[in-house]
Amino acid sequence: HDITDRLLHAGRPSPPCRRPSMPPSESLRHPLVRGAGTEPWLGRNGFAPPRRCRDTGALVALLLCFVAMAAIAAVALREGDIGRLETGMDVTNQLCGLRREGYPEAIAERPFVFFACLPYGRREPTVCTAECPKVSGQYVRWYNGSLISCPTANGRSIPATTYPTTHLQQNCVPSAASLYALVATQIDTDAFPSTLEGMLKARWLLAAAACAAALLAAGWGLAVRALAPSRRLALLALTACVSSLLLLAAALWFRFLQGLSVAGEMPVLQGSLQVATNAQMAAALAAIATAIAVGVGVALSCGLQQRLLQAGGLLREASEAIASLPALLVLPLLLSCAIALLAAAWLSVSLYIASAGRVERGVLHADERLQWLFLLHSLGSLWAMEVLFHWAFCATAGLIVRWYFGAPSLAEGGGGGALLRASCRTLRYSAGSLAIGSLLVLPGRPLRFLLEHCLHQAQTDGSGKPELRGVAHCCLRCCLDVATRHLQYMSHNAYVLVAVHDVGFCEGARQAFELTLSNIGRVAVLAAGERLLLSLGKLSIASVGTAAVAAALSTPLTAFSAADNGSGVACFAFVLIYAIANAWLVVFDAAVEAIFLCFLVDQAENDGETRPYYASAALRSYMEAHRPTYVLPSMSLDDDELSHAIQQMGGLDSLEPPPPMRAVAG
Q: Pick from 291, 295, 310: which is nearest to 530 by CA?
C-alpha cells in the first residue's frame, strides 16, 4: 500500500486538505503544524492525547548515575582533604601553613616543607619552615624550639643543620642534584594529582575566563544578527577561527618553551620526573592544537569555505525570531550559571578524590579505587551537562515552532510565559527523552558531519565531472543505506518534535528523519552550513579564551613554576569556555533547526496561492536561491523495487489519480 500511494502521488500536487474556515495552524496535516497552535491537536480518535512521561528507562538510568556520583562524592569528602594538594605535610602528618585545631601555633606561619636530615642520607624527619634556607650550618628546630637530631650510621645522633635549597611549589628542594635524587620520588607527584593541583591553583583564572567567554559569546550573537544577511558573517567566522587556532597553538608552544628554559636554569630539575612529564604534556597539547589548526585550514580548502559562504539565511531568520522573543535571552544566562556550578562541583569532587588516601609520616598514598571511580564521576558530569544543553534546545525549539506558525499567545510578555511553560513542560514530560538523546546524539556527530560534507560536495562540485557523479551516486547510496538510517536519526531535530508533541526521543527522531530525508540535499547544503558557522564561532571563542589562559600561566602573576602542570588547566579551560559559548549560542542552534523543519513542512503543506506560506519572503528567496543542483538518490524506494512494482501494476499508464478529497460535516 505504501508503494502504491507513493506512485499515485509521484509528481502530482497534493489535494486540498483543509476547509477555508479553519485556522491554518489547526488544519494543516503535519503534526508539527497542528501542535504549534494555541489548542492541542486532536488524535486519530478525535480527542486530544493526554501528555505523559516518555523514555522513563533513560530517566531512571540518569537518576541512578546521579546517585552513583553522589556516593562517590560522599566517599571522597570523607577520605580526602584539599589542603594536602595546596601544601605539604611534616612527619607528623600536619599540613604546613594552615591553622587547624590541634596544630601548633607556629605551624600556621611555616608554609614550606624542609627535609632536615637529608645531608645524612635520610628523608625523615620533615618539618615546616617559614622560608627555604639559602645557607648552610644553621640549626634546624622543632616548633617548640628544640633541636632536631639526625641518627647516623654508627648509632649516634647529631643536630640537623641547614643546606642550600630552592623553593619549588611547597617544598624546599636541595640545590645539589645528589641530594635531590634522594627525595625525588617523594616530591614528584603523578600526572593525575599534579593536573588537579594546577586547576586548583588557577581556579580564579578559570572563573575569569568563563566570564570573559560569556561576554564574547554574547558579542558573537550580536554579530550574527548584524552580519547574517550578508557574507560578512562567514568571512568573520573563517578569519576568527583560523586566527584563534593559530594564536592558541602559538601560546601553547610559548608555554612549552618557557618551561624548558626555566628547567634549564635550574640544573637540579633536569632529573625531575614531574618536570619531564609536564614538558611532555605541554608539547603534546601544543602539537594537537597545531594539528587542529592545520586540519581546519585543509578542510576549508576542501569545500567547507564554500558551504560557509552559502550560509546565513536561516541564521538571519533565527535572529529575527529571537529578537521578537526577548525572553529567550534568559535561557543562556541560566544555562551559563548552571554550567559554571556543575564545573565547580566537578572540580571540587575531583580535588577530594585526588587528595584521598592513606597518610603515613607525611607521605600520601593515593586511593587508586577512587581514582578509577573518577572516570565515572567525569562521565556523569558530562552527561548532566549535555542534558542541560538539550533541555535548553528543546524548550527553545518548541517556542520557535509556535512563533513560525503564528501562535498568538507568544505576544504576551515577549514570550516569557510561553518560555516558562515550555521549559517546565520539557522537564515534566521529556526529561527521559533528554537523557537518552544526550547519549545518542554525541556519537553520531562526527559521522553525520562527514556524511553531510560528502553530500554537499556531490551537489556543488559535480558539474562537468560525470565520472565523479557516478562514483558519488554509489558511495552516497551506501552511506544512506547504512549511516543515515541509524546515526542520522540521532540528531537534534528530534527535539523539535519532542517539544511540540508528546513523543519519545526515538519517535521524534524517526519523524524528523522522514521529514529531512526527502530534503537531504537542503540539509547538506543549508542546515549543515548554518550549524558549522555557529560551531566555528564557539571554537573561536574557546581558542581565544584558552590562549589567554595559557599566556596568563606564563606570567609571574599566577606564580606557576616548571613543576606546576598547566596542561590540565588549558584543557579544562577549553572545555569550560566552549561549554559557556555553547550555552549562549544554543538558542541560535535550536532556532535554525526548528525553522528549517518548519520550512520543509510549510513547503509540503502549502502552495503559496490558495494556502499561503508561513515563511517570510526573505527566507523563501534564500531557500530557493540555494536549491541543490544535483538530486541525490532517495532512500524511500529502491530502483529495482520501483520497477518491479510498476511492472506488477501494468506500467505507469495504468495508474489512475486518486479521487478528490471532500470535507465531511461534523
A: 310
